[in-house]
User: Fold this.
Amino acid sequence: MEQRELLYEGKAKQLYRTSDPDVLIQHFKDDATAFNAKKRGTIVDKGILNNRMSEVLFRFLEEQGVPTHFVRRLNDRDMLVPRLRDREDRGGRQEPGGR
Assistant:
C-alpha cells in the first residue's frame, strides 16, 4: 500500500491518503504531551505499542460482533483504516452517523 499525502496530524496519530481511495494509513507517533500540551516530549516506541494494542482491542471487539474501523495492521507503526466521507465528498450535506 503506497503512502501518499498527509491529510491530518494530531497529537498521537497521522492520517495519510493511499493509492486506494477507500482506505487511509493511520500512523502512530511517539509524541507525548502533558498538562494540556504545555509539556511535550517523545516516548520511544510509544507508537509501536499503541498500534499493537489497538489491533488487539479491535480484533477482540470484532469477535464480539462490534464493528470497528480496523482493516489490518501494515507494520509496527501503521494501520489500514477505511476512509470516511467528509462534507466535501457529500456535497456539503450532513449524513446520519457522519458517513
